[in-house]
Each structure stands twice: as structure tokens, then as C-alpha cells.
Amino acid sequence: MPESNETRERILRIAEIIIEELKLEEITPESFDPDMDLVGELGVDSMDLATVALVLQDEYGVFIDEDDYPKLKTIRMIAEYLQSRLQGGKD
Amino acid sequence: MQDGANPAVTTNAATEPCAVAGHNAVGKRAGIPEEADRRRWKFSELLVERDVRARWEKVRKYFFLRESTYDMSNRCNLRCDGCYYYEGEKQFAAENGDAGAWRALMRTEKARGITYVVLAGAEPSLVPGLLEVCFAEMPLGCIATNGVRRIEPAVGYKIHISVWGNDATSFRVRKAGDLLKRQIENYRDDPRAVFVYTFTRENVDEAAAVVDMLAAANCRVTFNMFSSPVGYAGPLRHDGASLVRTREAMAEMMSRHPRLVLFSPYSAVAHTHALGLHDLYRCSYPRMNASTDLGLGRSFRQFRTDLSWDRDAACCVPDTDCADCRHYAAGSAVVTARLYRHVTDPWTFRSWLDYVDTYLAVWVMGYEKGENLCAEMISPPGCEETVKG
């Protein structure tokens, strides 16, 4: 099923946040593969992920439990996670 | 052997994680204004103040550090009461003194993402050639030594020199005469050196004189807490009263030698709380953490002298009784990893930054500690314990 514009925009915004917070070079939100394994392939560690989660929490007004960090393996999974949290109502 | 349970410190952590018998729970966290404790803070709001933002940017540069630890030798030139190395199976591992094997191990470690090595047990200074090999392959790290034998300056790791009290106590517990004098002679004015004073139940009152002596020699000092090996129920094990006295002694030393004592008020709280680090922060080392998804659970290994490792035993101080663990090395990783829990309010976040700033100054060459941002001793997140029992 093709992704909606809303999902696409969210994926780009998450990519932008990750690039900015982790100071990634030579990658743009558009070129960031939303299915790339952030831990296994990009080398993102727990502290990086915690930082990104805190920024996302601010941006979307949702609560991201630290026990859920391992679920945030790719940008697409983060987008889906946020979507589910947003549907469940803001924290 | 008894299981080492300490009757003076009882917890009901299953239902109330931080309600501690013998401490006054007052319904709010110590050190934090009530109105700040009630509202929800955004992470971005916590970063508004310039000094906090600067400290955050300073410490986050080191989030790339990923540690593993390595027992370098199964020999030691001291034999101390309560030594964690000579507990459990690891002491019986054969010593691999082959420089090529260590070089290959370091390269493999680097390839799997390790960026920081802790060279320890039993006494790394007895294998100087291996230290040089490790340093040539992995530029960031630390050596835990008793300081009896000087490590060559060419090995540019941080060097942690263990101090367990004054010379009389060292003689009794470690069977070593004039130990402090020898340690200072070996490491005075050495930018690698941090003297690690381990508080036991018995040596709290000696700390001031020892730290004064180290400070007079311009030596930097940090603090460790004796954490009992599994099954140890001897006189070094802390009880509720010694934890309170230790916290007071730490505060006094920080106040007396702010430039040379590398510590923070929150470091004191985290390491002298009636609950150990695991109960307070949930230890993330493999031994207590089944998840291999992220962080230490994914990458940490503790290598024995034969270069083998066992995930079920892997932590920074193997064979320590986890319920009694307040070890400085454990806290450096475990408290730091709990960033998320410390973004609740400005005081808690500042305290966490102080903790991380302290740990980096203790463990990373060239990192200089800033002034503590929070002078208050605030309770760990989720806890309602007051500072004094």
C-alpha cells in the first residue's frame, strides 16, 4: 500500500531530526533510507536513540517509554510508533 | 557462606521502587522545589539556559564511547580482602601473554564498534608489554591498578589507582606497607592519574586525611564504594549508617578540594543511596540485562585472561553481589545510560549532567571537569527518599 503524504512527511521530519541530532554528514532527509537499521547499519547507540526520542517527544507531544526504544529500529518504525501513539491521544 | 544480605538496608522495591526502610519518605523528591516537581518539562526547555546547553553539548560529544573490559593478568602483587577478582571462576582462567593475540583481539573489538577499553584484573601493571599493544590499537581507555608499579608514560590511558584507606588500613586489608606513599611517588603530577578512594564500612573516617594528603601532592581523587563480592558478609560491607556517613564525607571532600576531587553531589547520592545501582537505575550490563538490542546489552563484553568471555557473567565488576553494587565503574555506565529518566526537571537534568561530566573527567584523557551545575543533593528520579536517614 502506498504511504500517505502525512506518513511521507513524518518520515522526512524524523530523518531531519536524526541528521541534526546525530550530526550526520553526506545524507539528506530525502536520501535517508527509511528502512535502514539505525543500530545495526548506521551505528546509532542507546544514548543517540535516547536523544532522538526526547526531541521527538517534544515535537509530537507523545510519551516514548524507554522500554520502547528497541522498537525504534528504523525511521519507518519510528513513524509508525508515533502514529500509533498519536492515535492513542497525546500524553 | 551466607548470601551477604544486609539486614540494615531493606527494600520493598517490587512495589515501591524507592521507598526505603530507615529513610524518611516525604512524598516529594529531595532537593527539588515542589512546583518544579509537579509540572512536565520539555527537553528543549531544559536546554534553554546557556550553561546547561553548553554542558550538554560538551558531554554528548562522548556518547560514541562503547566500552568493554579485559582482565590482563591473573597475578597480583597485593592480595586484598574483598577483592572481586579472586571470586568466582575468572581467577582460574589461564593467562594469555601473547602480544599478537591481544593485538588481534583489539582489532576485532574495534571492528565490532568498541571505542573504549578498561584494562583491569588482577594487576595490569605486571604485563606492561600488553598494555602497550592495547594502547597502540585502541587509543581510549583506562587501566585499573594498585599503583605499586608505575606504568610507562607511553601508555596514554587514564590510570585509576586504588586507595582503600590510610597506610595502617592498607597494611591490614591489603598487606602492603607505605602504599599511599608509593602510589603518590609513582603518579604525582601524572595527567593520566586519578586516585580512587574506595569507601568501606570501616574506612569512612580516614578519608579526609587521605584525601588531604593526595590533594597536597596535587593528585586528583574520585570515590568508589566497596561493593561486596557474591557471598561476602565481612566487615567492609556497607550498612545504612556507613552509607550516610560516607555521603557526608564525600560532601566534605568536595567542598574542601573542589578542583582536585572529581565528584558531584548527585554522584554522592547515586552511590550512597540505601538502594544499590541496580534497584535505582536498572543495571544495563549483560549480566542483569537480557536484551541484546541496544547499548551495553548489545556490545559489552568482559574478557578473561584467556580472552574468553561469558555473556551471563559480563559486567564491569564480575562476581559482585548485584544487590550491593554501588561501584563507580558500574555507575558511570548505568546512571549515564538513564538520560531519559533525568529529563524531568531542571535540577534533575543538571544533576545528571554533573554526573556525566564527572564520569568523563575520571575516565577520558584530556576531558576536564566543569563546575557542578547543581549544588543540591537531589533524589534519584522516582524516589522520594530524603538525603539523610
State the gist of this model.
The complex is a heterodimer of chains A (91) and B (389). Chain A is mainly alpha-helical.
Q: What report would you give on this structure?
A:
The complex is a heterodimer of chains A (91) and B (389). Chain A is mainly α and 91 residues long. The N and C termini of chain A lie far apart (29 Å). Chain A is built from three helices and no strands. Chain A is globular, with a radius of gyration of 12 Å. Chain A has one domain: Non-ribosomal Peptide Synthetase Peptidyl Carrier Protein, Chain A. Chain B has 389 residues and is an alpha/beta fold. Chain B has a single domain (34-363), classed as TIM Barrel, CATH 3.20.20.70. In chain B, helix 5 links the parallel strand 2 (116-120) and strand 3. In chain B, helix 4 packs parallel to helix 5 (128-137) and helix 9 (240-256) runs antiparallel to helix 10 (265-272). The interface between A and B is medium-sized, with 17 and 23 residues.
Name its key features.
heterodimer; A: 91 residues; mainly alpha; Non-ribosomal Peptide Synthetase Peptidyl Carrier Protein, Chain A; 0% strand; globular; B: 389 residues; alpha/beta; TIM Barrel; seven-stranded parallel beta sheet; 7 strands; disordered N terminus
